[in-house]
Amino acid sequence: MMLRRDFLKTSAVSGIFVGLGKGAFAAPSGWRQFEITYRVVLKTEKIPARVWVPVPQDALDYQRVIDLSWRSPAAASLLWETAARAPIISAGWVDATMPREIEITARVATRDRSGYYPDASQGELTEYLRPTPSSPNDGIVLAKAREIIGSRTAPLNKARAIYDWIVDNTFRRAETRGCGLGNVAFMLETGDMGGKCADINSLYVGLARAAGLPARDFFGIRVADSAVSKSLGKSGEITKAQHCRAEVFIEGQGWLPVDPADVRKVVLEEELAVDSEKVTALRERLFGSWEMNWVGFNYARDFTLPAQKEGPIGFLMYPYAETPDGALDSLDPASFTYSIFAKEIV
User: Fold this and answer.
1) Residue 147 contacts by C-beta under 8 Å, 6 or more apart in sequence?
2) Are residues 62 and 183 in the same domain?
3) What are 133-152's pLDDT values in tens digits?
């Protein structure tokens, strides 16, 4: 332990986030604070090895990073992937005698989000209309978007029509690994509408973009139990609690939060009919609001990580690592290995 303490390096964020500073955030009414701790150990003797860990960022008026620190015997740093708007802590090992481990602690404040957030640049809106390899906006995706919106012309009506179609025509498949792949064209081409949040909410984003509505995935993790449904929260060990959400921009109003995937999650896990009273109420709630027992990491889709050898990756919601043998399985934390814990700071 003494030797370990001697070579551990601790770094703190500066310049990338608004930066409230540890202890400087006096939470006003409605705000909650969470501490998230990641522990990553690479079970490999081979070098070089590198890990990339997604971490929280400031988000509009509902999420603030208070403090972010890490320690590792390796050279580790905070990276900002500009094109993907993704903060990432990356560590690399070139010394075979050095322990391959890193511990990251993030303290984040959140408050429940409801309604529109109007701030968006034209460049940002253009960015979130662009197709990606996983989510084209032509071909079958464009055809399905046109079929869904029909004669509707108002942006809000288009957004709601796509949302309702997603809720009515997809389903959550429990055996899907992780959060799914988020391959929009594949879902529509095969007619396989089952999956998890990265499938269902990415389908919403893809159809919205094809309909001319700026939209984006927001990848993150649940950090506390839910006041809305037992299915929609996780506290304590949250290693497998990753969840992505979606936003759509309504012209003249702003960014609107949606989450059709969580509607389908409640249908499956609470064994409810989609037209039951509880699900009907949840469908309304999740078109325009998010319960912030969840922390967002990034909006990145189909991109290559800094210094990554393999890739690109579809999204970054789990720790990702590479060795000379290739990429480790991010969806198997036991063999990776990594763990993530969360606690609320009262």
Assistant:
1) none
2) no
3) 999 999 999 999 999 999 99
231 and 91 inside one domain: no
Tokens, residue 164? 């309702």
Residue 9 has pLDDT above 60, yes or no: no
Q: What is the pLDDT of residue 25?
A: 43
CA distance 266 to 258: 15
Domain check: are 142 and 250 in the same one?
Answer: yes
Residues 17 and 39 in one domain: yes
What are the start-end ranges of the E strands in 242-319? Answer: 242-250, 254-258, 289-290, 294-298
Question: How many Cβ atoms sit within 10 Å of the Cβ of residue 285?
Answer: 16
Tokens representing 117 are 């957030």
* Three-class SS state of 281: helix
H/E element, 329: none
- pLDDT, mean of residues 216-233: 98
Residues in the chain, total: 346
Q: What is the largest CA-CA distance in the chain?
A: 70
Cα-only R_g, the chain: 20
> Which one-letter DSSP state was computed for residue 149?
H
Residue 216: name the closest of 135, 311, 285, 303 by CA: 135
Amino acid symbol at 199: D
